[in-house]
Amino acid sequence: MSNNAAIVEISQTAGKFTSSIVLQAESKYIDVKSILGLFTTLVGGHDYELHVHGPDADEAKKAMAEVFAKHNLNVNIVAE
């Protein structure tokens, strides 16, 4: 599996929502709508946390969880 495919799909999926979707990897916070940010962060088998805020947060959390799982990326979606 190419990480590039995961990055593009994560970014495109996030772009469908108005909610703010932020990925926390160690001490970095990345807007997942930013492909460049993902390229520099989504490397290695880190555990990631996803923070979602906004009017469509529930739908966004579900969609993002599916994309991360599809690409075998371990993400913990934080319930705010």
Automatic annotation (TrEMBL):
InterPro entries hit by this protein: HPr-like (IPR000032), HPr-like_sf (IPR035895)
Keywords, comma-separated and alphabetical: Sugar transport, Transport
Keyword Disulfide bond: no
Keyword Disulfide bond appears in the UniProt entry: no
Signal peptide residues on this chain, from the entry's feature table: none
Protein name: PTS sugar transporter
Gene3D superfamilies, per the entry: HPr-like
HPr domain boundaries: 9-69
Species this protein is from: Paenibacillus oryzae
Transmembrane regions listed in the UniProt entry: none
